[in-house]
Predict the structure.
Amino acid sequence: MIRSTICGPAIGLAAALIATLAAPPVRAQLNTLTKEQMIEYTAQNPFERFPDGRPKVPDSIIERARGLSAEEVFGVLPAKGFRNQYEDGFQVLHPGKKMVGRAFTVQFMPARPDVETVMNAKSHEKGGPALNNQYAIDMLQPGDVLVVDLFGKKDGGTIVGDNLFYYVMKATHGGGLVVDGAIRDLEGISEMDMPAYFRSAHPSYIANVMLTGVNVPVRIGNVTVMPGDLVVGDREGIYFIPPQLAREVLDKADETHIHDEWTRLKFDEGKYKSSDIYGSPRDPELKKEYQEYLAKRLAEIRAQK
Amino acid sequence: MIRSTICGPAIGLAAALIATLAAPPVRAQLNTLTKEQMIEYTAQNPFERFPDGRPKVPDSIIERARGLSAEEVFGVLPAKGFRNQYEDGFQVLHPGKKMVGRAFTVQFMPARPDVETVMNAKSHEKGGPALNNQYAIDMLQPGDVLVVDLFGKKDGGTIVGDNLFYYVMKATHGGGLVVDGAIRDLEGISEMDMPAYFRSAHPSYIANVMLTGVNVPVRIGNVTVMPGDLVVGDREGIYFIPPQLAREVLDKADETHIHDEWTRLKFDEGKYKSSDIYGSPRDPELKKEYQEYLAKRLAEIRAQK
Amino acid sequence: MIRSTICGPAIGLAAALIATLAAPPVRAQLNTLTKEQMIEYTAQNPFERFPDGRPKVPDSIIERARGLSAEEVFGVLPAKGFRNQYEDGFQVLHPGKKMVGRAFTVQFMPARPDVETVMNAKSHEKGGPALNNQYAIDMLQPGDVLVVDLFGKKDGGTIVGDNLFYYVMKATHGGGLVVDGAIRDLEGISEMDMPAYFRSAHPSYIANVMLTGVNVPVRIGNVTVMPGDLVVGDREGIYFIPPQLAREVLDKADETHIHDEWTRLKFDEGKYKSSDIYGSPRDPELKKEYQEYLAKRLAEIRAQK
Amino acid sequence: MIRSTICGPAIGLAAALIATLAAPPVRAQLNTLTKEQMIEYTAQNPFERFPDGRPKVPDSIIERARGLSAEEVFGVLPAKGFRNQYEDGFQVLHPGKKMVGRAFTVQFMPARPDVETVMNAKSHEKGGPALNNQYAIDMLQPGDVLVVDLFGKKDGGTIVGDNLFYYVMKATHGGGLVVDGAIRDLEGISEMDMPAYFRSAHPSYIANVMLTGVNVPVRIGNVTVMPGDLVVGDREGIYFIPPQLAREVLDKADETHIHDEWTRLKFDEGKYKSSDIYGSPRDPELKKEYQEYLAKRLAEIRAQK
Amino acid sequence: MIRSTICGPAIGLAAALIATLAAPPVRAQLNTLTKEQMIEYTAQNPFERFPDGRPKVPDSIIERARGLSAEEVFGVLPAKGFRNQYEDGFQVLHPGKKMVGRAFTVQFMPARPDVETVMNAKSHEKGGPALNNQYAIDMLQPGDVLVVDLFGKKDGGTIVGDNLFYYVMKATHGGGLVVDGAIRDLEGISEMDMPAYFRSAHPSYIANVMLTGVNVPVRIGNVTVMPGDLVVGDREGIYFIPPQLAREVLDKADETHIHDEWTRLKFDEGKYKSSDIYGSPRDPELKKEYQEYLAKRLAEIRAQK
Amino acid sequence: MIRSTICGPAIGLAAALIATLAAPPVRAQLNTLTKEQMIEYTAQNPFERFPDGRPKVPDSIIERARGLSAEEVFGVLPAKGFRNQYEDGFQVLHPGKKMVGRAFTVQFMPARPDVETVMNAKSHEKGGPALNNQYAIDMLQPGDVLVVDLFGKKDGGTIVGDNLFYYVMKATHGGGLVVDGAIRDLEGISEMDMPAYFRSAHPSYIANVMLTGVNVPVRIGNVTVMPGDLVVGDREGIYFIPPQLAREVLDKADETHIHDEWTRLKFDEGKYKSSDIYGSPRDPELKKEYQEYLAKRLAEIRAQK
């Protein structure tokens, strides 16, 4: 459905941004990270990077992460001091479909004409496109999850309707959408096969907000999301995993999956109380049995990869 | 399940109402619209009317409206000054099933024995039925959507259980139910094939309220619903469309559907940024292509009707 | 502060209303009670009436009611079947100041241009004033409490700012204001000496609503308020007392006050457990002592009146 | 997923409990019912009991109760003075799947090290297991519904993850789970075929709480649940039925089911207004017809049992 | 105002309780602590005890605690592992008046006639008073704060009206009231000079609940309160301090008060940035100055005691 | 009370910032505005600036603004396109005390060790102070209002306790505090004579957050606050006025004050309906009278300045 873009003074503001890529001192958005800053603030990233410095978690990691659940991430991150990487309270478009991808972040703030006028002028100087939701959406890459801070806004806080949702799905190869705000056209969107997490749905166009940052640190509820975080959403909520912890989380999860398998096999035998087996077996014989099972299965799993 | 009607002093109050149809000066409910007032306050209605003056949006319009989404209505009404015709925050019984029909409105207020006693006495004079939920429900017509103002009440605010829900479904030919209040027997109702929107479910009978109006203007959240409004509900929320705007909304929606088709065809080509194509194409060639596509498809659609 | 009135199509709609007083068939507001209906629905009123039929609880009753608390009303009304006459959840302007007066009710609904246009036209025919908040406010009488149903609206739901609040205070002789909605100019209003109960304060003008009834039954939270109800507000909440129950409530409260006096005198003696004395004394001697105290004090109180 | 048990000082506290079974004066949990107290407080139970005195509603009753809905229970309990036996506001894991079973109750309170230390010491004296969630879970029987008071806690209020949920399912033969608190591993749990009602889901382990009672009276929202209550959950909410009322509820429900059947058959004929037939038929002929239908169908149903 | 006690089956239930004091095996309330259990679960109490075993924090400690604020308690308790001893979200009757005293705890649960009947019968056997709010209130001692778990109930959850509030004030010598529930007669209570913390006010009598424990562990929001805890309430919220930590909290607070004095004296000099002085001085000279000031003032304070 | 600063990795991070002032390319905080950017984004500021480019609304304007109310600002800003400059929903420390000053903005985000580590390292290189709440507070100037975005955080979101509140009061000469988050030590703070607006109070220290910007655009509820905005708070809420609109707002308010004066004088005469006088007089004579009064009083007021 038509016109799901910011109207008003924001139109035509983006020129400066494009110019910025060539000419660093120019800056149309309020908040930006230069390539140097992006690399600096994500210095622990062990993987490749996009041309703008954003960490690029490899596709192989993304595929492995489809087997993760929120609980398995919880088993690793808080112990490393990352206590604020989980957020819930979203409406989940397809509860049975995991969302996994690289965070592409977008920030909006309540509109102020005086600030918009300045961004406008800078943009017009350079002849760039409008600094609006489509400006950001046009930059999406395969494997990205679009992560949007719209400060919980409902009326006017609708990042996409069904046409742009369709575009995001195509551009990210079904990566996903997280918006601390709203979507419109829920009726049309509900038939599209991309995971999405949103606070509410509303028929209004996006309005009364201004785009203030693309691929900058954003706040989604109680999480600081960095561009390039590995985003993992299940029906419970969303984890934003710093790239440097992705492998450890996944390796740990392999063990957990095996532990789950073995635990349920034992429970199926019907001979044990839960505490005989779980968290870890009491009986030394059983403990040994489990250790052997774990070693064998881990070897199998790793052989597959 | 039995007894989903108002108990207590309200029983047997409705005689006066029936008499009223014959003898206008009598008035048992607190709030009424005479036929003349109904016509006067809905004077812009371009369609036929029911015998009591309520606008009767034609069945053909109702059928076309099954293709509408909330967003498409939003594209027309606010611009016409109708800023308060949308309401959400309901539990939706069958999210995949559109609700379309003519508003049949019912109003309740918190019970007061002194007022009920008066309505009671008037009713007994004329020998009519009880002024309760069934009194109103018995007046439903095929194509109606029952729209009930129960001021958000949960305990005791249950307009129907499964038996009366079944009756409403039969009487309206599956039209639908909107209640700013509750239903009971959700378990039984969930298997019935009529759309329903409600704030909550509760096992209690309807109680501690009095019927104060049938086919009068009612307040559903932030909307003033007039009898005869075209009601359109999708999984996002409900639009109450004044009859005089129904055609315009539908014609506009036809264009939107074509625009959506074309936009996605272009996105499928994978050659364009979202802003090259959407909201409207930048390139004059593409613009022309779209105009031609639109004209052709509109002609096809209209030929079908 | 200026312009706290409804703008837009509502301006100039009230002519029909004034004409209505002379010529009953004309009706500009959606909801009205004729004088006959007002009398009929408040038939149990034992007191005089205003020219429009609204019950007029005498000034002497109003003065006695200043000694009431919400609990004392609760001791009488539910037992008479009036279970829905209390509402709380308001911001209380002057918690230390009781509010007592006769309910003057006003009803608003969300604006619809089609309905407003009709009211407008009817009003213009008769040359009356605008059908807005001031139209109703101009009808206030000494001893009234202005009771406004603005369906909880905050932004645009501001019945008065400080200038009109000042006028209401003058016109009602400090009667009071209850609004299921908002006020503006809280800063200015807080210095004025009239009780007021409101859901919120907001700087916006009243907007996007239409006046649909004056001195009709209105809904304030979970209460049906009838014009002429005796309104009693304390720091806890508000009771709307049907006129026919006013005397009984007050007589009962006299006894309660004496019971309180005696109970505390006994507690002050420090010799008793609470259950020796309260709710009623266990010991027959004490019971007799209390009965004598009650009789004596009641006689004194009644002699004063 | 691993480690869904209470960590910290609670570990190893349960010895005293086990000893308690043999040696009644010992008491490790804060709250207990001895066998004598259990029998005394559930004296009206007409059925067998478990060894610890908990009422054991027979399997035949449990099977019949699978046909119940919340409304049918409401039709009996309040009239018997049981006004507080229904609770809703839960997330329902499998809305299409009824939950029926015997209440096995568990109570937690916010952790205090001084109290935990005492329970700990008592437990160590006797060499028992940890007083934690698994301690209680290990006592579950086929046909039980685990009913847990975790005072609405989300973070740290997770009674089970998917492994222990699997164990509960096996141990209760799919009985069910009610927690006024949270679960973890919703992703894993959602594939398991046991009914569950919970306030929220969270990835955290259970933490910062202490187990204070097993099979004691617990508070679930506004209900006092007694061990052995018949628990019936549908998509609307949960009823906790005292054993002594189970048969009456079920017999009444049989009649209601027949009444529903007949009512809808009549509605299907399309000849009647709802009030002609429902709540009970107006016409004496119809009334007789219904009575005969009821008698015949009741006989059939009872013959089947 | 009259009759603020539980009506219905609860009346006359308390006999067994009184008998219980003499004859331990009898138990009318659902939850009790024997004297032995009370002592066992509060074993770390360094002070005297009441005859029933409840810790009796000395009056001198209570007096010193009037100088405490919530922050000063926070500075000690969590570090000792007591992370759940603070609760807020109350309405505070007299925000300018500290509340300090010994916790006297009372527990209610939603009423069930079958359980009440049993308690009733046990009570009648012994000829004791009703098991209701007054039963507990009559046991209050000077210096107590009445701490009531009414599970947040508003309508019917009113522990006292103004007469019983007056009694509590007299009996506790102005100790105080905390109720996770409601009070009635706020108008009358607001003139009485005792601190009180409550969730809401309502005109209803206490109803539909049963007294299930006196001086047992109770849950107030997220806190487990033990009988005899030192209760300290300021305008921010309430701390429940285990007796064994009372002295340490107070000694630490003395230092904090001196630190505050010195910090502000320094700030008054206007020569320093906040971080030069606070949390602790950067400059070694200043650090020394502070240490000397602290030592001198501590000596003065301790000399006064 | 001691230690109201961020603990953990944030300590010692600020060196880079200070260095930044001299050496622009260094940047320790995530978000900053260079002097050039500050001037660019506040280009319409008609007044002087601070050395870092922040607009400096003159003291004379601040003094005049003490007479403003929220409604008077509302009369100007939305019409200029500034629809998002008002926020409410705060606890107001001193409702009777206006807050007026220049916005000094501070931004926090949820803590992430990887990002903090980077800021830390940059800071250590330069030897600067900790990047915490005190780092920002030490930069306050007389006339400032400290405006803090702590994203509504309560536990751990406490920007100051009483000692730092005292410092802020001294440093800003009583300017004020707005925090979309919490304060601690409400008990101590409530006796200090500086206006403050906060979401909640909590005894915890500030924790689990990182300072990410000083004097950058921040979001307070639905407002984008720019450094140097004129902040005006009354008991209703807070307006953030762009400097370029300050004079117009004040001039308009002068007229409103006169209009209020005159309106009430007329109402005091008791001869008029509210609509005769307000919003503007109907009668041409009265209109003229008002115009003359306005002219005279405006002249007087302007003569005083």
Notes: The interface with chain F takes residues 9, 27, 30-31, 37, 40-44, 80-85, 109-115, 118, 151, 153, 208, 210, 212, 216-217, 219, 222-224, 226, 242, 244 of chain A (CB under 8 Å).
